[in-house]
């Protein structure tokens, strides 16, 4: 399996091809979101909502042996695209990998400029929540 | 004299720039309007030439600053046709103006069981201060409902009015929908029950001729920054007899007549409500904004804005998936909408990528959004410096975005 860094490099390349055009970048992010696997309606609970996002984002996990699989959804297409990028990088990995991941692709593709400060805060909240899940799994595994 | 758009646009330096590689199309005027060069110059001139604390010093600069500051009060008095300067109080915005009334008029005159009426379409600034007051005083906040077009239901208003109604606090023009409310009728009816009426004029004062004597409102609150003026400056108009009957707001310098440790006597209105060193520079610069409006004339401004409104309403209405929110018969140049299947945040971001600045979200009117069963809207709001070709850019971008989900 590709490392977290491999996948980040892939994403950086993809966004590099889009260049500086903000509109096509946003369309691309939305397309990525549209490809996210179906999120179970029953998991759209108040508990699964990530705090700190302006739009609604639901995040939940499934255990797959020693790995964590993330499932997410959002009521906005752009946010869905953003979380799909995080899932692409972090889902299906061991808690430790997730905890230590340095997500430098976000800065390298200039995400802050593309999505603005409010959504950047939301993105940071998503990452934090994913790492919290990883921490909880790790604690449980070590118990 | 018909308005020459080229001339007007040349007065606003900020409009001439690119955003995301596209010419800026600024359609967020209900949030704040841009400032003409004269306002910017007045700000720097003040600090370069006249800066002094007012009403105190016996020197030439202080005297000059005081005169300029008080001249703005006179201009505002004329702008809203108040009886006298003393009825004009400077605050830091509409929000503070409303809070001032709640904290002084409310503190003294609202008691247990009293009723305060607001409408479903209020800005949070005209909801929360009354909720706080009602909680403290065990008074009752009642809500006037609206219809699906975003208009106040007058027969429901009639039913809500009674002898316990002490205050009706109502938005003159809705920031989220653009609805112009029939405030003259509301004021007349409220007065019959002895209730006072506060008008939230944050949006109306930029679009309509607001004449406080003709309307007979008891209070009017508005913000300079929505009138081509600086941020951090608001106005509260109140009728003299009411202002005089109200206790002071904040304590400090400027608002006193005489202070001893035994007893302090308060200054006369308006100074009683203006404790501390005020926002002198912004008050003085605001003159230039009012002169800009007066030079163009309210009726020509309105005509220009109405033109843009009907042009945009017609064109946007043809787009498949376009859902207007707020379709009142009487509206100012605000168009709130959603696109079928799309979140307003996403629409706003895609418009921004096209250089178009609009507001998205709940517009500080969450109860109103709940009334319509939506999370928010996209809001395009036009000012006198906007052009039909800018509307064309908006319409083309909205059509393209709508297509994503409405093939
Ligand atoms: C109708 C209305 N009321 C009150 C306010 C609050 O004004 P300010 O933020 O300038 O105090 C606004 C501003 O958005 C408004 O549109």
Short description:
By secondary structure, chain A is mainly α.
Explained architecture:
The complex is a heterodimer of chains A (143) and B (407). With 143 residues, chain A is mainly alpha-helical. Chain A contains six helices and two strands; from the N terminus they run ααββαααα. A two-stranded antiparallel sheet of chain A has the order 1-2. The longest helix of chain A has 32 residues, at 111-142. Chain A starts with a helix and ends with a helix. The mean pLDDT of chain A is 91. Chain B is an alpha/beta fold and 407 residues long. Chain B folds into two domains: 5-28 and 298-406, Aspartate Aminotransferase, domain 1 (Alpha-Beta Complex), CATH 3.90.1150.10; 52-294, Type I PLP-dependent aspartate aminotransferase-like (Major domain) (Aspartate Aminotransferase, domain 2), CATH 3.40.640. Chain B has helices at 5-10, 37-50, 60-79, 94-109, 128-137, 154-160, 183-192, 204-207, 212-215, 240-245, 280-296, 298-317, 344-353, 366-372, 388-405; strands spanning 18-19, 22-23, 25-26, 88-91, 115-119, 140-144, 165-171, 196-200, 219-223, 234-238, 256-259, 264-266, 322-325, 334-339, 356-357, 359-361, 377-381. In chain B, the strands form five sheets. In chain B, strands 4-10-9-8-7-5-6 form a seven-stranded mixed sheet, sandwiched between helices. In chain B, strands 13-14-17-16 form a four-stranded antiparallel sheet, with helices on one face. Chain B is globular. The mean pLDDT of chain B is 96. The interface between A and B is medium-sized, with 16 and 14 residues. Pyridoxal-5'-phosphate is lined by residues 93-95, 123, 125-126, 171, 175, 200, 202-203, 223, 234 of chain B. Residues 93-95, 123, 125-126, 171, 175, 200, 202-203, 223, 234 of chain B line the site of pyridoxal-5'-phosphate.
